[in-house]
Amino acid sequence: MKIRVNQIPEGGETFVLKVEEKKANRYFSLLKNSDFLALSDLTGNVNVWDQDGMIIVEGNLKVDLRLTCSRCLSYFRYPISHHFRSIYSPFYETCQEEDLELKPYDMDVSIYNGEELDLDNVLYEQVFLGMPAQALCSPECKGLCPSCGANLNEGPCHCEIHSSFSPFDVLKKLKLKG
Ligand SMILES: [Zn+2]
Ligand SMILES: [Zn+2]
Predict the structure, then answer these.
(1) Cα(154) to centroid of ligand 1, in Å?
(2) CA–centroid distance, residue 77 to ligand 1 (Å)
(3) Cα 123 from chain centroid (whole Å)
(4) In a designed cystine with 46, which of 20, 32, 59, 123 is the match (CB 3.0 to 4.6 A)?
């Protein structure tokens, strides 16, 4: 949903947002290295207001994602439900700023074209900000066996018995070599 920035009333305006699952996944599939999917529509309630030319968007985002576990490579469901506050600065204004390089990053400010703000993009941005730093199906995920590739969450594999690795084994070998 796109809104005209000059039509935002003085006290701000509330929007109920929804980006359909299919549309969101079409967008995500165009991005590089996006190994995740939306399993639900992206929904949110936001308040939007103009503060001296800066557009503030505050509200929440809800979506269920399908992520890939970084240890065992299996898919798992990851619900996001978080509150956010984003600041959007018009493009032309930031270009005139001399401290352009510092400002947008320091203040966590995004850029919009000065006339329109696409609230779908606001939600997409929040999907990325809501993702975990490391995708894990569970904090106790045992991962894959480095030699046979078996998923160790499903039980021990056969090579585990033979290669019980301990620091003492390394010491033994070093002693032999010396
Ligand atoms: Zn895992
Ligand atoms: Zn194994």
Answers:
(1) 10
(2) 12
(3) 11
(4) 59
Which protein residues have their CB within 5 A of the ion that is ligand 1? 69, 71-72, 137, 141
pTM, two decimal places: 0.77
Domain parsing of the chain, residue ranges: 2-140, 142-178
Closest to 94 (Cα-Cα) out of 121, 69, 78, 113: 113
Going from the Cα of 58 to the center of ligand 1, the distance in angstroms, rounded, reads 33
| 146 CA distance to ligand 2 middle (Å) | 7
Cα(119)–Cα(2) distance, rounded to whole angstroms? 6
Q: How far is the CA of 56 from the centre of ligand 1 (A)?
A: 38
Q: What is the mean pLDDT of residues 44-69?
A: 95
Angle at 35 between CA 34 and CA 37, to 5 degrees: 95
What value does the mean pLDDT take over residues 114-142? 93
**Average pLDDT of the chain, as a whole number:** 85
